[in-house]
Amino acid sequence: MSSIVLTDVTVDVPIYGVSSRNAKGTLLRTIRRRVDSETVWIRALESVSLTLNDGDRLGLIGANGAGKTTLLRVIAGILSPTAGHVAIDGEIAAMFDLNLGMSFDATGRENIISRGMVLGHSRAEMVDMIGPITEFADLGDRINHPVRTYSSGMVARLSFSIATAIQPEILLLDEGIGMADAAFTARAEKRLHDFITRAGILVVASHADQLLSQFCDRAIVLDRGRVTFVGPVTDAVEHYRASFQHSLPEEPRA
């Protein structure tokens, strides 16, 4: 049984090389300055608590900079909270920061193993997946070449194929991920759809209300790192629009 439990999680992110006296405007409302340092710290999340269990599908809604990606990174274990507690039970696939752990001087084959291990898989698992990943990414013999010799589309295909090679118990998704290679998009979307439907827990950050309504049963609204609403997706979207006077983009009609 997979689960995610966050208790009063706060995250402060440093901005190096910026003096607190140079921070102006609304930024001051979210800035903390450590008394023993000139480093400016932005409060990216403040006192966030949530509990998710098998079968839960949670959407994250908020303007750019509201804390959606920071929250995903905390759940994924990429960021540690400044305060609070995080308890995760289950294997995670993080479908964002897709180049995380990628060495551009190493070969594609070497990256399959090293990046898979960064994602929490064993070396043996990733060795077994070299063939399927290479085939899905359509890299052929280029899998033995350094990644720095790849086109941007090839890098995107490899990164996506590694991230989706093994079905996780917990899937973290940011709709901002995109495929530079248009010919690869259809296959990627089908695999991602299968990943979403089979995941034990789904957490997705999105501005598309149709995507949220299709895959999520509830959502939270974030504003400057704070949770301002928790409830059904439709109510969360309405709260976001009313409170922040934004419109989520309409889905294109067929």
How is this structure best described in words?
By secondary structure, this protein is of the alpha/beta class. It has a domain at 3-91 and 204-244: P-loop containing nucleotide triphosphate hydrolases (Rossmann fold). 33% of the residues lie in helices and 27% in strands. The protein has 7 helices and 10 strands. The chain has helices spanning 68-76, 108-118, 123-137, 152-163, 182-198, 209-215, 233-244, and strands at 3-15, 31-33, 40-53, 57-61, 83-89, 92-95, 170-174, 201-205, 218-223, 226-231. The strands form 2 sheets. A 6-stranded mixed sheet has the order 6-7-8-4-9-10, sandwiched between helices. Helix 2 (108-118) packs across helix 3 (123-137) and helix 3 (123-137) crosses helix 4. It is globular, with a radius of gyration of 19 Å. 33% of the residues are buried. Mean pLDDT is 86; it is low at 20-29. Belongs to the ABC transporter superfamily. GO terms for molecular function: ABC-type transporter activity; ATP binding; ATP hydrolysis activity.
